[in-house]
Amino acid sequence: MSITDWPEGDRPREKLLQKGATALSDAELLAIFLRIGVKGKSAVDLARELMTKFGTLTQLFAASETEFCEILGLGQAKFVQLQAVIELSRRALHEEMQRGDALNSPHVVRNYLQLLLAGRHQEVFVVLFLDTQHRVIASEELFQGTLGQASVYPREVVKRALANNAAAVIFAHNHPSGVAEPSAADERLTATLKQALALVEVRVLDHFIVAMGTTISFAERGLL
């Protein structure tokens, strides 16, 4: 049965218009994005197959073109569209961080970092540079490493903070293992960077560790 044969209230597009986007399941939202299915499968069936294959939206967003296109009915055009949607979401969150106090909008920072880092197969170290009102000036990926570790150079972090005229910074890096708990090495690195930045009067406001679906804050753990 195609979606057009469903009761109107059960069709994803009509349901969204009547009840709002939050009323839809992940699969229903994906079905609207996909628009059409393939022979024998509606767009919702295809969306459910995507969710079954990848498990979560975060995993789906992190999928490679090859992985995405393995499902019959999905090709490069849909992959490109999905990447555009993800990037638009990142940019919208970045704009929101630029407008307001990052410390008063922790959910925005977390959502941005999840879209940026979750699902990456290498460790990536990111610094958010903030002004005196804690608005984000810039977001920079400064270091990339192997699956096990990234080499982070305090001198380079200080250099970029001064170049951005930052009054404060927020650090973030991902754990490709999927475990978001901070390691002893993470704590030592944070302490070293905090000391280096203190010499140029730049405050370290937080350090987030991002794993699939989870973001841990050093500040909330009392580790700063």
Sum up the structure in keywords.
224 residues, 9 helices, alpha+beta
| Biggest sheet strand line-up | 2-1-3-4-5
What is the makeup of the main sheet? 5 strands, mixed
The coarse silhouette is elongated
What is the residue-averaged pLDDT?
Answer: 84
List the uncertain runs.
none
Q: What's the number of helices? A: 9
Q: Care to give the gist of this entry?
A:
Helices cover about 45% and strands about 15% of the residues. It has helices at about 10-20, 25-35, 45-55, 55-60, 65-70, 75-100, 105-115, 155-165, 185-200, and strands at about 125-130, 135-145, 170-175, 205-210, 215. The chain is elongated and about 65 Å long.
Secondary structure: elements and pairs:
Elements: H1 12-19, H2 26-34, H3 43-54, H4 57-61, H5 65-69, H6 76-99, H7 106-117, E1 124-130, E2 136-144, H8 154-163, E3 168-174, H9 184-198, E4 203-211, E5 214-217
Parallel strand pairs: 3-4
Antiparallel strand pairs: 1-2, 1-3, 4-5
Helix pairs in contact: 2-3, 6-7, 8-9
Write structural notes for this entry.
- 45% of the residues lie in helices and 16% in strands.
- The protein has nine helices and five strands; from the N terminus they run αααααααββαβαββ.
- The protein has a five-stranded mixed beta sheet, sandwiched between helices.
- The relative contact order is 0.09.
- The model has no long low-confidence stretch (mean pLDDT 84).
